[in-house]
Amino acid sequence: MSEQMNVVKAGIIGLGRLGSRHARHLVEKIQGIDLIAACALDDEQLKWAHNDLGVANTYKDYKEMIDKEDIDAIFIVAPTPFHPEMTIYAMNAGLNVFCEKPLGLDFDEVNKMADVINQHPKQIFQSGFMRRYDESYRYAKKLVDEGRIGKIIYMRGYGIDPISGMESFTKFATEADSGGIFVDMNIHDVDLIRWFTKQEPVQAYGLTSNIAAPELEKIGEFETGVAQLKMDGGVIATLIGGRHAAHGNQVELEIMGSDGWLRVGEHPDLNRVTVFSENGVTKPSLQSFGERFDNAFTDEVQDFVYNVKRGTQPEVTVEDGIKALKIAKACQESANSGQLVNIKL
């Protein structure tokens, strides 16, 4: 796209928990974009987009929306298995695409998706690894790159949802394939480990359990997953995914260096308030990923809009998304088989 584009006209596919957040951001916070169309299967979601956000046109068929609307970009926030086909259709229609992570679940489909993306080098494709845009992670990355903690020895990434989200997840996983706990919960941690270390994993060993939520076994899901990664430069990393944090949303990254440690999100404080009451001395905790990463979601989408206007590709590439998916799936394969899995990227 040329630098002369003043306003990027956009459509969005998916208005669920994350899609509705993106849609509201596009209307209320993002500069240089006009959300003129939305697609979802739920009538109430479409009514909300039209009445509350002022989205002019709503659809239940994403192809119809892409074919009819005069738009420059599409935001894909639909269930993961549909990401490849939607991206392929949008790219072939000449649109710029922002696609939420993961890229997909089936590698053949994801590879076809990547081929089509690479066939359209002038169109912008960006995947939703928003943690790279979070100011705390960016500050930690700066410290690491400056050598402030020496050489990275070990990394540990937590991604644990609050108990309150169990009902919503169970409904989602009953209706669609989540990809398993490592793909669904830890793919961001996988991306961060690659980003911080500049190394690639060569082996994975994963374990899972349903001690805290045995009901998930009926739908082939696990409540807790732990995986060890061996990186090609010697770094060891641990991934921990879960859905049963009693206190709220725990998203944490630890980086152990030869000359110091960093921890991002060690305490999931909602704000800087400390409450002194009959319950003792307490601090309110974050209760959702949305509360924790609201600014990061906004910044990544704003970056996408800038990239579309300038015709520049983002830092996060489709290859980053493919590698993160392969690594997360290798962790799940190891957990399913009980065997150490070699990773070939």
TrEMBL record:
A Pfam match: GFO_IDH_MocA
Keyword set includes Nuclease: no
Residue ranges annotated for the Gfo/Idh/MocA-like oxidoreductase N-terminal domain, each copy included: 9-124
Keywords on record: Oxidoreductase
GFO/IDH/MocA-like oxidoreductase domain residues: 137-263
Superkingdom: Bacteria
Family annotation (SUPFAM superfamilies): Glyceraldehyde-3-phosphate dehydrogenase-like, C-terminal domain, NAD(P)-binding Rossmann-fold domains
PANTHER family the UniProt entry points to: BINDING ROSSMANN FOLD OXIDOREDUCTASE, PUTATIVE (AFU_ORTHOLOGUE AFUA_2G10240)-RELATED, NAD(P)-BINDING ROSSMANN-FOLD SUPERFAMILY PROTEIN-RELATED
Family recorded in the similarity comment: Belongs to the Gfo/Idh/MocA family.
Protein name per Swiss-Prot or TrEMBL: Gfo/Idh/MocA family oxidoreductase
Species this chain originates from: Companilactobacillus baiquanensis
